[in-house]
Amino acid sequence: MSKWNFETNRLCQLLGVKYPIIQAGMVWCSGWKLAKEVSEYGGLGTIGAGSMYPEILKEHLQKIQNVLPSNTPYAVNLPLLYPQIQEHIQLIIEHQVPIVITSAGNPKTWTQTLKSNGIKVLHVVSSVKFALKAEEARVDAVIAEGFEAGGHNGREELTTMVLVPAVAEACSIPVVAAGGIKDGKSMFAAMTLGADGVQIGSRFVCSLESSAHDTFKKAILEAPEDATSLTLKELTPVRLLKNAFFHQILQAYQNHASAEELRNLLGKGRSKKGMFEGNLEEGELEIGQVAGYLKDILPAKTILQHILDEYHAIYHQIKNS
């Protein structure tokens, strides 16, 4: 079995997809419209449930099931620390969601419940230690996410280039690389490091179908290469686009703020305010390091086509050299 041949690639076979590309379930950016486009093209589209109340998730599940061709796989991303997790799990089971990507919590908690209902489970990890725990919990695959990734991240600050080969060597289940992947070159590099496929987030934030606010998308396109930073490690580490709110965080650190003071500063609804409502000053703007290299907003299917064209060009160049 060769991972380079997508017909025999074990991640493609596990997920039932044509291409080993997962669109990340980013909060406030990954609704049913984006997931539909990616899944229809042959990747794995993902609904980001972390920013959804149960009734909103139900609406997105109903809509994607109404428009996707029968048996076309899609996923729901489910942060395990979500306060209404049991309601989300019940909705996922009731709607027979084929694949769930869990993160931010112990995979042992819900993996067997999901798998006993015929649902495949992938879990996001930030270290070899957590990858082995996820494999022990019997997840179907792990997503090794380097600290280049946007949004909530691991405390280890392991880069994708370091993390992916280490996890691939340690685990026997399929490994998906995430963090800093935006095109065919980075996809090829990740698979050369040992990954069976990739998960891509930030590039899809700047898609036409992304539910991110247009103002946020435009801010990403204007971002310099040093525009993001990982912060708030005392709470849950998160990579943010530097804005007025980010500088409030820096000032709080300079004033030796406690974790509780940082929590109060963050408050509630910051990410919605920034990414979904477009408040670039007061909002929390979660995006990966690749933000400084994104220069256009394209349809999701065009993004996928460009990634695959570049990937295959590199593959054939090396194969024939």
Structure keywords:
14 helices; TIM Barrel; alpha/beta; 321 residues; 3-stranded antiparallel beta sheet; globular
Question: Quick gist of this model?
Answer:
The chain has 321 residues and is α/β, with parallel strands linked by helices. It has helices spanning 10-15, 32-41, 54-67, 85-94, 111-115, 128-136, 160-170, 184-192, 202-205, 214-221, 244-254, 259-266, 270-276, 300-319; strands at 21-23, 46-48, 75-79, 99-103, 120-125, 141-145, 151-152, 175-178, 197-200, 228-231, 238-241. It has an eight-stranded parallel sheet with strand order 1-9-8-6-5-4-3-2. A three-stranded antiparallel sheet has the order 7-11-10, with no helix packed on it.
Number of helices: 14
Ranges with pLDDT <50 over ≥5 residues? none
- The Cα radius of gyration reads 18 Å
Strand coverage percent: 5-15%
CATH topology: TIM Barrel
CATH class: Alpha Beta
CATH architecture: Alpha-Beta Barrel
Total strand segments: 11
